[in-house]
Protein backbone atom coordinates (compact mmCIF):
# COMPACT_ATOMS: atom_id res chain seq x y z
CA UNK A 1 0.00 0.00 0.00
CA UNK A 2 1.34 3.45 -0.88
CA UNK A 3 0.41 6.63 0.92
CA UNK A 4 -1.41 9.36 -1.00
CA UNK A 5 1.01 12.18 -1.75
CA UNK A 6 0.43 15.42 0.00
CA UNK A 7 0.86 16.79 3.49
CA UNK A 8 -0.76 15.05 6.43
CA UNK A 9 -3.79 17.01 7.61
CA UNK A 10 -3.83 17.51 11.38
CA UNK A 11 -7.05 17.01 13.27
CA UNK A 12 -8.56 19.68 15.53
CA UNK A 13 -6.93 20.25 18.87
CA UNK A 14 -8.31 18.13 21.70
CA UNK A 15 -10.42 19.49 24.50
CA UNK A 16 -8.89 19.67 27.96
CA UNK A 17 -8.47 16.20 29.40
CA UNK A 18 -8.74 14.45 26.03
CA UNK A 19 -6.08 12.42 24.26
CA UNK A 20 -4.12 14.08 21.48
CA UNK A 21 -5.94 13.20 18.21
CA UNK A 22 -4.24 11.23 15.48
CA UNK A 23 -3.35 12.69 12.11
CA UNK A 24 -5.69 12.19 9.18
CA UNK A 25 -4.33 9.56 6.84
CA UNK A 26 -5.29 8.92 3.21
CA UNK A 27 -4.03 5.79 1.42
CA UNK A 28 -4.56 3.77 -1.73
CA UNK A 29 -4.65 0.01 -2.26
CA UNK A 30 -1.49 -1.81 -3.28
CA UNK A 31 -0.46 -1.15 -6.92
CA UNK A 32 -0.87 -4.86 -7.77
CA UNK A 33 -4.57 -4.72 -6.88
CA UNK A 34 -5.73 -4.24 -10.52
CA UNK A 35 -3.82 -7.36 -11.57
CA UNK A 36 -5.16 -9.48 -8.70
CA UNK A 37 -8.76 -8.48 -9.40
CA UNK A 38 -8.47 -8.45 -13.21
CA UNK A 39 -7.11 -11.93 -13.82
CA UNK A 40 -10.28 -13.48 -12.34
CA UNK A 41 -12.41 -11.58 -14.87
CA UNK A 42 -10.09 -12.60 -17.69
CA UNK A 43 -10.16 -16.26 -16.63
CA UNK A 44 -13.97 -16.26 -16.51
CA UNK A 45 -14.10 -14.72 -19.99
CA UNK A 46 -11.72 -17.31 -21.44
CA UNK A 47 -13.64 -20.19 -19.85
CA UNK A 48 -16.98 -18.82 -21.03
CA UNK A 49 -15.84 -18.43 -24.62
CA UNK A 50 -13.94 -21.72 -24.61
CA UNK A 51 -17.07 -23.66 -23.68
CA UNK A 52 -18.66 -22.60 -26.96
CA UNK A 53 -16.08 -24.60 -28.87
CA UNK A 54 -16.16 -27.76 -26.76
CA UNK A 55 -17.77 -30.68 -28.70
CA UNK A 56 -21.25 -31.40 -27.39
CA UNK A 57 -22.42 -34.12 -29.80
CA UNK A 58 -24.01 -31.73 -32.32
CA UNK A 59 -21.06 -31.88 -34.69
CA UNK A 60 -17.60 -30.32 -34.80
CA UNK A 61 -17.27 -26.59 -34.38
CA UNK A 62 -14.38 -25.09 -36.34
CA UNK A 63 -12.05 -22.87 -34.36
CA UNK A 64 -11.64 -19.28 -35.52
CA UNK A 65 -8.26 -18.20 -36.88
CA UNK A 66 -5.53 -18.02 -34.28
CA UNK A 67 -5.10 -14.31 -35.02
CA UNK A 68 -8.68 -13.64 -33.93
CA UNK A 69 -8.21 -15.63 -30.73
CA UNK A 70 -5.01 -13.80 -29.81
CA UNK A 71 -6.56 -10.44 -30.67
CA UNK A 72 -9.64 -11.18 -28.55
CA UNK A 73 -7.52 -12.27 -25.58
CA UNK A 74 -5.36 -9.18 -25.96
CA UNK A 75 -8.34 -6.83 -26.08
CA UNK A 76 -9.92 -8.54 -23.06
CA UNK A 77 -6.64 -8.23 -21.17
CA UNK A 78 -6.33 -4.53 -22.00
CA UNK A 79 -9.96 -3.87 -21.06
CA UNK A 80 -9.64 -5.72 -17.75
CA UNK A 81 -6.36 -3.95 -17.00
CA UNK A 82 -7.80 -0.53 -17.83
CA UNK A 83 -10.91 -1.13 -15.72
CA UNK A 84 -8.78 -2.37 -12.82
CA UNK A 85 -6.42 0.61 -13.05
CA UNK A 86 -9.30 3.10 -13.06
CA UNK A 87 -10.88 1.38 -10.09
CA UNK A 88 -7.54 1.44 -8.24
CA UNK A 89 -6.85 5.06 -9.18
CA UNK A 90 -10.12 6.32 -7.71
CA UNK A 91 -10.11 4.20 -4.54
CA UNK A 92 -9.10 5.83 -1.26
CA UNK A 93 -8.99 4.72 2.37
CA UNK A 94 -9.31 7.73 4.66
CA UNK A 95 -8.76 7.40 8.41
CA UNK A 96 -9.55 10.29 10.72
CA UNK A 97 -10.40 10.75 14.39
CA UNK A 98 -13.82 9.06 14.37
CA UNK A 99 -14.22 6.86 11.32
CA UNK A 100 -12.80 4.98 8.36
CA UNK A 101 -14.01 6.17 4.97
CA UNK A 102 -13.73 4.12 1.77
CA UNK A 103 -14.15 6.19 -1.42
CA UNK A 104 -14.60 4.36 -4.74
CA UNK A 105 -15.89 5.04 -8.25
CA UNK A 106 -14.62 7.06 -11.20
CA UNK A 107 -17.95 8.26 -12.64
CA UNK A 108 -20.41 7.44 -9.86
CA UNK A 109 -18.68 8.17 -6.60
CA UNK A 110 -19.45 6.04 -3.54
CA UNK A 111 -18.29 6.81 -0.03
CA UNK A 112 -18.68 4.22 2.73
CA UNK A 113 -18.22 5.57 6.24
CA UNK A 114 -17.49 3.19 9.10
CA UNK A 115 -17.48 4.61 12.61
CA UNK A 116 -14.83 3.00 14.81
CA UNK A 117 -17.31 2.25 17.58
CA UNK A 118 -19.46 0.24 15.12
CA UNK A 119 -16.69 -2.18 14.15
CA UNK A 120 -17.50 -5.64 15.51
CA UNK A 121 -14.74 -7.77 14.00
CA UNK A 122 -12.19 -7.67 11.18
CA UNK A 123 -11.04 -10.62 9.11
CA UNK A 124 -7.84 -10.84 7.07
CA UNK A 125 -8.44 -12.93 3.95
CA UNK A 126 -5.79 -14.05 1.47
CA UNK A 127 -7.26 -15.51 -1.72
CA UNK A 128 -4.92 -17.73 -3.69
CA UNK A 129 -3.84 -15.07 -6.21
CA UNK A 130 -3.28 -12.43 -3.51
CA UNK A 131 -1.36 -14.91 -1.38
CA UNK A 132 1.15 -15.49 -4.18
CA UNK A 133 2.13 -11.82 -3.99
CA UNK A 134 1.97 -11.44 -0.21
CA UNK A 135 -1.24 -9.38 -0.29
CA UNK A 136 -4.47 -9.60 1.70
CA UNK A 137 -7.87 -7.98 2.01
CA UNK A 138 -9.64 -6.73 5.12
CA UNK A 139 -13.29 -7.61 5.69
CA UNK A 140 -14.86 -5.28 8.23
CA UNK A 141 -17.94 -6.53 10.05
CA UNK A 142 -20.28 -3.91 11.49
CA UNK A 143 -23.06 -6.34 12.42
CA UNK A 144 -24.81 -6.65 9.05
CA UNK A 145 -24.74 -9.23 6.27
CA UNK A 146 -22.78 -6.97 3.91
CA UNK A 147 -19.14 -6.42 4.85
CA UNK A 148 -16.92 -3.56 3.79
CA UNK A 149 -13.72 -4.76 2.10
CA UNK A 150 -10.32 -3.13 1.69
CA UNK A 151 -8.60 -4.74 -1.32
CA UNK A 152 -5.67 -5.33 -1.47
CA UNK A 153 -2.99 -4.45 1.08
CA UNK A 154 0.48 -5.70 1.80
CA UNK A 155 0.15 -8.51 4.34
CA UNK A 156 2.02 -6.79 7.15
CA UNK A 157 0.11 -3.58 6.48
CA UNK A 158 -3.19 -5.48 6.61
CA UNK A 159 -2.28 -6.91 10.02
CA UNK A 160 -1.25 -3.49 11.29
CA UNK A 161 -4.41 -1.82 10.03
CA UNK A 162 -6.56 -4.59 11.51
CA UNK A 163 -4.99 -4.21 14.96
CA UNK A 164 -5.26 -0.43 14.69
CA UNK A 165 -8.97 -0.47 13.80
CA UNK A 166 -9.74 -2.97 16.56
CA UNK A 167 -7.91 -0.78 19.07
CA UNK A 168 -9.89 2.25 17.93
CA UNK A 169 -13.10 0.21 18.16
CA UNK A 170 -12.26 -0.38 21.84
CA UNK A 171 -11.85 3.34 22.37
CA UNK A 172 -8.03 3.41 22.54
CA UNK A 173 -5.82 5.83 20.66
CA UNK A 174 -3.16 3.97 18.70
CA UNK A 175 -0.83 4.17 15.76
CA UNK A 176 -1.06 1.86 12.73
CA UNK A 177 2.53 0.69 13.10
CA UNK A 178 3.91 -1.84 10.65
CA UNK A 179 3.24 -5.37 11.89
CA UNK A 180 5.72 -8.20 11.90
CA UNK A 181 5.40 -11.15 9.57
CA UNK A 182 3.71 -14.24 11.01
CA UNK A 183 6.00 -16.96 12.29
CA UNK A 184 4.66 -19.37 9.63
CA UNK A 185 3.41 -18.89 6.08
CA UNK A 186 0.69 -21.49 6.70
CA UNK A 187 -0.87 -19.72 9.70
CA UNK A 188 -1.64 -16.24 10.99
CA UNK A 189 0.24 -16.80 14.25
CA UNK A 190 2.61 -14.24 15.69
CA UNK A 191 5.09 -14.59 18.51
CA UNK A 192 2.84 -13.05 21.16
CA UNK A 193 -0.25 -15.13 20.27
CA UNK A 194 -1.61 -17.67 22.75
CA UNK A 195 -2.58 -20.85 20.91
CA UNK A 196 -5.70 -22.42 22.41
CA UNK A 197 -6.65 -25.18 19.95
CA UNK A 198 -4.96 -26.54 16.83
CA UNK A 199 -6.36 -29.25 14.56
CA UNK A 200 -3.70 -31.04 12.44
CA UNK A 201 -4.48 -32.02 8.82
CA UNK A 202 -4.50 -35.75 9.63
CA UNK A 203 -7.32 -35.20 12.12
CA UNK A 204 -9.28 -33.26 9.51
CA UNK A 205 -8.79 -36.08 7.00
CA UNK A 206 -9.86 -38.72 9.51
CA UNK A 207 -12.89 -36.67 10.51
CA UNK A 208 -13.91 -36.16 6.88
CA UNK A 209 -13.78 -39.84 5.86
CA UNK A 210 -15.66 -40.93 9.01
CA UNK A 211 -18.35 -38.22 8.94
CA UNK A 212 -22.00 -39.02 8.27
CA UNK A 213 -21.91 -36.82 5.13
CA UNK A 214 -19.13 -38.99 3.65
CA UNK A 215 -21.06 -42.19 4.26
CA UNK A 216 -24.26 -40.64 2.92
CA UNK A 217 -22.49 -40.09 -0.42
CA UNK A 218 -21.21 -43.68 -0.36
CA UNK A 219 -24.69 -44.99 0.46
CA UNK A 220 -26.19 -43.05 -2.45
CA UNK A 221 -23.72 -44.64 -4.85
CA UNK A 222 -24.40 -48.13 -3.46
CA UNK A 223 -28.15 -47.67 -3.92
CA UNK A 224 -27.65 -46.88 -7.62
CA UNK A 225 -25.35 -49.89 -7.99
CA UNK A 226 -27.92 -52.16 -6.31
CA UNK A 227 -30.66 -50.91 -8.63
CA UNK A 228 -28.43 -51.53 -11.67
CA UNK A 229 -27.65 -55.09 -10.58
CA UNK A 230 -31.31 -55.78 -9.84
CA UNK A 231 -32.51 -54.74 -13.30
CA UNK A 232 -29.44 -56.05 -15.10
CA UNK A 233 -28.23 -52.67 -16.33
CA UNK A 234 -24.47 -52.87 -15.89
CA UNK A 235 -23.91 -49.41 -17.32
CA UNK A 236 -25.39 -47.99 -14.10
CA UNK A 237 -22.24 -49.17 -12.30
CA UNK A 238 -20.15 -46.71 -14.28
CA UNK A 239 -22.85 -44.05 -14.00
CA UNK A 240 -22.77 -44.39 -10.21
CA UNK A 241 -19.00 -44.74 -9.80
CA UNK A 242 -18.01 -41.50 -11.54
CA UNK A 243 -20.25 -39.04 -9.59
CA UNK A 244 -19.72 -40.94 -6.32
CA UNK A 245 -15.92 -40.82 -6.55
CA UNK A 246 -16.05 -37.20 -7.70
CA UNK A 247 -18.41 -36.28 -4.85
CA UNK A 248 -16.25 -38.02 -2.23
CA UNK A 249 -13.07 -36.38 -3.49
CA UNK A 250 -14.70 -32.95 -3.59
CA UNK A 251 -16.20 -33.32 -0.11
CA UNK A 252 -12.95 -34.48 1.52
CA UNK A 253 -10.82 -31.89 -0.27
CA UNK A 254 -13.15 -29.04 0.74
CA UNK A 255 -13.15 -30.13 4.36
CA UNK A 256 -9.37 -30.55 4.54
CA UNK A 257 -8.25 -27.54 2.48
CA UNK A 258 -10.91 -25.22 3.91
CA UNK A 259 -9.97 -25.94 7.55
CA UNK A 260 -6.29 -26.75 6.94
CA UNK A 261 -4.10 -25.84 9.93
CA UNK A 262 -7.13 -24.68 11.91
CA UNK A 263 -5.93 -22.60 14.87
CA UNK A 264 -7.92 -20.87 17.59
CA UNK A 265 -5.73 -18.31 19.30
CA UNK A 266 -6.02 -15.40 21.69
CA UNK A 267 -4.16 -12.20 21.03
CA UNK A 268 -4.10 -8.68 22.37
CA UNK A 269 -7.28 -7.57 20.60
CA UNK A 270 -9.37 -10.73 21.01
CA UNK A 271 -9.89 -14.24 19.69
CA UNK A 272 -8.83 -15.28 16.21
CA UNK A 273 -9.47 -18.31 13.99
CA UNK A 274 -7.04 -18.93 11.14
CA UNK A 275 -7.52 -21.67 8.56
CA UNK A 276 -7.02 -22.56 4.90
CA UNK A 277 -4.46 -24.10 2.55
CA UNK A 278 -4.80 -22.37 -0.82
CA UNK A 279 -6.56 -19.35 0.69
CA UNK A 280 -5.68 -18.26 4.22
CA UNK A 281 -8.38 -16.66 6.36
CA UNK A 282 -7.79 -14.99 9.72
CA UNK A 283 -11.26 -14.52 11.21
CA UNK A 284 -12.04 -12.43 14.28
CA UNK A 285 -14.35 -14.03 16.83
CA UNK A 286 -16.50 -11.63 18.93
CA UNK A 287 -17.72 -13.65 21.96
CA UNK A 288 -20.48 -11.21 22.92
CA UNK A 289 -22.22 -11.74 19.59
CA UNK A 290 -22.27 -15.54 19.82
CA UNK A 291 -25.94 -16.37 20.34
CA UNK A 292 -25.99 -20.17 20.44
CA UNK A 293 -23.67 -23.16 20.08
CA UNK A 294 -24.28 -26.59 18.58
CA UNK A 295 -22.01 -29.54 19.39
CA UNK A 296 -22.52 -32.54 17.08
CA UNK A 297 -21.14 -36.04 16.84
CA UNK A 298 -21.67 -38.59 14.05
CA UNK A 299 -21.94 -42.36 14.77
CA UNK A 300 -18.32 -43.19 13.88
CA UNK A 301 -17.09 -40.11 15.70
CA UNK A 302 -18.58 -41.48 18.91
CA UNK A 303 -16.08 -44.35 18.65
CA UNK A 304 -13.24 -41.92 17.91
CA UNK A 305 -14.21 -39.38 20.55
CA UNK A 306 -14.50 -36.51 18.04
CA UNK A 307 -16.91 -33.58 18.10
CA UNK A 308 -17.72 -30.61 15.87
CA UNK A 309 -18.77 -27.20 17.22
CA UNK A 310 -20.83 -24.67 15.23
CA UNK A 311 -21.79 -21.22 16.45
CA UNK A 312 -24.47 -18.69 15.62
CA UNK A 313 -23.11 -15.15 15.44
CA UNK A 314 -25.11 -12.01 14.71
CA UNK A 315 -24.17 -10.67 11.28
CA UNK A 316 -22.52 -13.89 10.05
CA UNK A 317 -25.62 -15.30 8.41
CA UNK A 318 -26.72 -18.93 8.34
CA UNK A 319 -24.68 -21.75 9.82
CA UNK A 320 -22.19 -22.89 7.17
CA UNK A 321 -21.10 -26.40 6.26
CA UNK A 322 -17.57 -25.16 5.52
CA UNK A 323 -17.50 -21.46 4.61
CA UNK A 324 -19.60 -19.19 2.43
CA UNK A 325 -18.53 -17.30 -0.70
CA UNK A 326 -17.24 -14.33 1.31
CA UNK A 327 -14.98 -16.55 3.40
CA UNK A 328 -17.09 -16.46 6.58
CA UNK A 329 -17.30 -19.73 8.51
CA UNK A 330 -19.46 -20.43 11.56
CA UNK A 331 -17.33 -23.43 12.58
CA UNK A 332 -15.79 -22.93 16.00
CA UNK A 333 -14.10 -26.35 15.97
CA UNK A 334 -14.11 -28.57 12.84
CA UNK A 335 -13.13 -31.75 14.72
CA UNK A 336 -11.69 -32.24 18.18
CA UNK A 337 -11.83 -34.10 21.46
CA UNK A 338 -14.08 -33.16 24.36
CA UNK A 339 -11.10 -31.47 26.04
CA UNK A 340 -10.64 -29.26 22.95
CA UNK A 341 -14.38 -28.56 22.84
CA UNK A 342 -14.26 -27.33 26.44
CA UNK A 343 -11.23 -25.14 25.72
CA UNK A 344 -12.94 -23.60 22.67
CA UNK A 345 -16.19 -22.97 24.55
CA UNK A 346 -14.25 -21.64 27.52
CA UNK A 347 -12.64 -19.08 25.22
CA UNK A 348 -15.99 -17.56 24.22
CA UNK A 349 -18.02 -18.32 27.36
CA UNK A 350 -15.53 -18.63 30.24
CA UNK A 351 -18.26 -18.75 32.90
CA UNK A 352 -20.04 -21.84 31.52
CA UNK A 353 -19.49 -25.60 31.37
CA UNK A 354 -22.28 -27.48 29.61
CA UNK A 355 -21.00 -30.86 30.79
CA UNK A 356 -21.99 -29.95 34.36
CA UNK A 357 -25.61 -29.15 33.50
CA UNK A 358 -27.96 -31.82 34.85
CA UNK A 359 -29.97 -33.08 31.84
CA UNK A 360 -33.38 -34.61 32.44
CA UNK A 361 -34.47 -37.47 30.13
CA UNK A 362 -37.74 -37.34 28.23
CA UNK A 363 -40.53 -39.54 29.65
CA UNK A 364 -41.02 -42.95 28.02
CA UNK A 365 -44.30 -41.85 26.45
CA UNK A 366 -42.28 -39.41 24.30
CA UNK A 367 -41.24 -42.38 22.15
CA UNK A 368 -44.70 -42.37 20.60
CA UNK A 369 -43.80 -39.03 18.98
CA UNK A 370 -40.05 -39.67 18.68
CA UNK A 371 -39.65 -43.43 18.13
CA UNK A 372 -35.93 -43.30 17.22
CA UNK A 373 -34.59 -40.28 19.09
CA UNK A 374 -36.85 -40.60 22.14
CA UNK A 375 -34.32 -42.52 24.30
CA UNK A 376 -31.69 -39.83 23.64
CA UNK A 377 -33.78 -36.70 24.32
CA UNK A 378 -32.45 -34.64 27.21
CA UNK A 379 -32.75 -31.07 28.44
CA UNK A 380 -31.80 -29.00 31.44
CA UNK A 381 -30.38 -25.67 32.57
CA UNK A 382 -28.27 -24.08 35.24
CA UNK A 383 -27.93 -20.43 36.20
CA UNK A 384 -26.12 -19.58 32.94
CA UNK A 385 -27.05 -22.06 30.18
CA UNK A 386 -29.97 -23.94 28.69
CA UNK A 387 -28.79 -27.26 27.21
CA UNK A 388 -30.77 -29.69 25.06
CA UNK A 389 -29.68 -32.96 23.47
CA UNK A 390 -31.37 -34.80 20.63
CA UNK A 391 -30.59 -36.93 17.61
CA UNK A 392 -30.55 -40.65 16.96
CA UNK A 393 -28.00 -41.01 14.17
CA UNK A 394 -26.15 -37.71 14.66
CA UNK A 395 -26.09 -36.65 18.30
CA UNK A 396 -26.43 -32.88 18.85
CA UNK A 397 -26.17 -30.67 21.94
CA UNK A 398 -27.58 -27.14 21.66
CA UNK A 399 -26.39 -24.52 24.16
CA UNK A 400 -28.05 -21.14 24.68
CA UNK A 401 -27.12 -18.71 27.50
CA UNK A 402 -30.00 -17.12 29.36
CA UNK A 403 -28.52 -13.72 28.46
CA UNK A 404 -29.02 -14.48 24.74
CA UNK A 405 -32.58 -15.85 24.92
CA UNK A 406 -35.16 -13.33 23.75
CA UNK A 407 -38.23 -15.53 24.12
CA UNK A 408 -39.22 -19.09 24.98
CA UNK A 409 -42.10 -20.75 23.18
CA UNK A 410 -44.07 -23.70 24.55
CA UNK A 411 -45.63 -25.75 21.74
CA UNK A 412 -48.23 -28.50 22.11
CA UNK A 413 -50.08 -30.30 19.33
CA UNK A 414 -53.21 -32.44 19.70
CA UNK A 415 -51.27 -35.69 20.21
CA UNK A 416 -48.67 -34.15 22.52
CA UNK A 417 -51.49 -32.74 24.69
CA UNK A 418 -52.99 -36.21 24.96
CA UNK A 419 -49.59 -37.56 26.00
CA UNK A 420 -48.89 -34.70 28.40
CA UNK A 421 -45.84 -33.54 26.42
CA UNK A 422 -44.59 -30.21 25.14
CA UNK A 423 -41.72 -28.77 23.09
CA UNK A 424 -39.65 -25.81 24.25
CA UNK A 425 -38.23 -23.44 21.60
CA UNK A 426 -35.54 -20.97 22.66
CA UNK A 427 -35.41 -17.92 20.37
CA UNK A 428 -32.27 -15.81 19.96
CA UNK A 429 -31.43 -12.78 17.85
CA UNK A 430 -29.82 -14.94 15.18
CA UNK A 431 -32.54 -17.59 14.68
CA UNK A 432 -30.17 -19.82 12.67
CA UNK A 433 -29.61 -22.54 15.28
CA UNK A 434 -33.13 -23.66 16.20
CA UNK A 435 -32.47 -24.58 19.81
CA UNK A 436 -35.30 -26.61 21.27
CA UNK A 437 -36.09 -29.28 23.83
CA UNK A 438 -38.47 -31.91 22.44
CA UNK A 439 -40.72 -34.34 24.27
CA UNK A 440 -40.60 -32.52 27.62
CA UNK A 441 -43.09 -33.41 30.33
CA UNK A 442 -45.76 -30.69 30.22
CA UNK A 443 -46.19 -30.67 33.99
CA UNK A 444 -42.46 -30.18 34.47
CA UNK A 445 -42.52 -27.24 32.05
CA UNK A 446 -45.27 -25.51 34.04
CA UNK A 447 -43.37 -26.08 37.28
CA UNK A 448 -40.14 -24.62 35.89
CA UNK A 449 -41.74 -21.80 33.89
CA UNK A 450 -41.39 -19.34 36.75
CA UNK A 451 -37.74 -20.32 37.21
CA UNK A 452 -37.01 -19.75 33.51
CA UNK A 453 -38.74 -16.37 33.56
CA UNK A 454 -36.70 -15.30 36.56
CA UNK A 455 -33.44 -16.28 34.83
CA UNK A 456 -34.43 -14.52 31.60
CA UNK A 457 -35.31 -11.27 33.37
CA UNK A 458 -32.39 -11.26 35.79
CA UNK A 459 -30.54 -8.10 34.73
CA UNK A 460 -27.84 -7.85 37.40
CA UNK A 461 -25.81 -10.87 36.25
CA UNK A 462 -22.59 -10.75 34.29
CA UNK A 463 -22.60 -11.87 30.69
CA UNK A 464 -21.29 -15.39 30.10
CA UNK A 465 -18.57 -14.00 27.80
CA UNK A 466 -17.00 -12.19 30.76
CA UNK A 467 -14.59 -13.91 33.18
CA UNK A 468 -15.49 -14.76 36.74
CA UNK A 469 -15.78 -11.71 39.04
CA UNK A 470 -13.09 -11.06 41.62
CA UNK A 471 -13.35 -8.90 44.75
CA UNK A 472 -11.97 -5.37 44.40
CA UNK A 473 -11.29 -4.98 48.11
CA UNK A 474 -9.63 -7.10 50.73
CA UNK A 475 -12.98 -7.63 52.44
CA UNK A 476 -14.89 -10.35 50.61
CA UNK A 477 -18.55 -9.82 49.85
CA UNK A 478 -18.38 -6.05 49.43
CA UNK A 479 -17.62 -5.00 45.85
CA UNK A 480 -16.92 -7.04 42.74
CA UNK A 481 -15.26 -6.32 39.44
CA UNK A 482 -14.20 -8.16 36.31
CA UNK A 483 -10.66 -8.25 35.00
CA UNK A 484 -10.51 -6.51 31.65
CA UNK A 485 -9.58 -8.85 28.77
CA UNK A 486 -7.86 -5.98 26.98
CA UNK A 487 -4.27 -5.38 28.18
CA UNK A 488 -4.48 -1.84 26.91
CA UNK A 489 -7.60 -1.15 28.92
CA UNK A 490 -8.08 -0.62 32.63
CA UNK A 491 -7.18 -3.34 35.06
CA UNK A 492 -10.70 -3.87 36.34
CA UNK A 493 -14.12 -2.62 35.42
CA UNK A 494 -17.09 -2.24 37.70
CA UNK A 495 -19.77 -4.86 37.23
CA UNK A 496 -23.15 -3.19 36.84
CA UNK A 497 -26.53 -4.14 35.43
CA UNK A 498 -25.77 -2.66 31.99
CA UNK A 499 -22.02 -3.21 31.80
CA UNK A 500 -21.95 -6.77 30.52
CA UNK A 501 -25.34 -7.44 28.93
CA UNK A 502 -25.07 -8.05 25.20
CA UNK A 503 -27.82 -8.39 22.58
CA UNK A 504 -30.48 -8.61 25.28
CA UNK A 505 -34.07 -7.95 24.31
CA UNK A 506 -37.22 -8.15 26.39
CA UNK A 507 -37.53 -11.82 27.34
CA UNK A 508 -40.94 -13.49 27.03
CA UNK A 509 -42.42 -16.94 27.28
CA UNK A 510 -45.36 -17.74 25.02
CA UNK A 511 -47.47 -20.85 24.65
CA UNK A 512 -48.96 -22.27 21.46
CA UNK A 513 -51.50 -25.04 21.51
Produce a short descriptive summary.
The protein is of the alpha+beta class and 513 residues long. It is built from eleven helices and 25 strands. The protein has helices at residues 33-50, 66-89, 128-132, 155-169, 201-209, 212-231, 235-258, 299-304, 338-348, 414-419, 442-457, and strands spanning 25-27, 92-95, 99-104, 110-115, 121-126, 135-141, 148-154, 194-199, 262-267, 270-275, 280-285, 290-297, 307-313, 331-336, 360-361, 378-381, 385-390, 395-401, 407-411, 421-427, 436-441, 470-471, 480-483, 492-494, 508-512.
Name a few traits of the molecule:
513 residues; alpha+beta; seven-stranded antiparallel beta sheet; disordered N terminus
Q: What would you say this structure looks like, in words?
A:
With 513 residues, the chain is of the alpha+beta class. Among the domains are: 60 residues; 183 residues, no CATH class. Helix content is 30%, strand content 26%. The chain has eleven helices and 25 strands. The strands form five sheets. Strands 7-6-5-11-10-9-8 form a seven-stranded antiparallel β-sheet, sandwiched between helices. A hairpin with a 2-residue loop joins strand 9 and strand 10. It is globular.
Amino acid sequence: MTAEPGPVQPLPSPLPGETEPLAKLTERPHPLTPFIRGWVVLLALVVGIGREFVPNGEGPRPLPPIEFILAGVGLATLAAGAAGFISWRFTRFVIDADELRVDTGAIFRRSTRIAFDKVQSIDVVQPFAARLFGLAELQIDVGSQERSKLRYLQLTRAYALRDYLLARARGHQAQAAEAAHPVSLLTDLHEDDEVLVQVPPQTLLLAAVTSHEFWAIVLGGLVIVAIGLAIGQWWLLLAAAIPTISGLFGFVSRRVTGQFNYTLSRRRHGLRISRGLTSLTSQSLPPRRVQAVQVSQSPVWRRLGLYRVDIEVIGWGAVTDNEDKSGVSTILLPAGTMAQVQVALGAIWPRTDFTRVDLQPAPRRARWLHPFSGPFLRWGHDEDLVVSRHGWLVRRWQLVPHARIQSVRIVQGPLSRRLGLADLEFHTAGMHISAQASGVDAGQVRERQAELLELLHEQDRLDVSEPEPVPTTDRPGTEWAVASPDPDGPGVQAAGPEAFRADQAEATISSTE
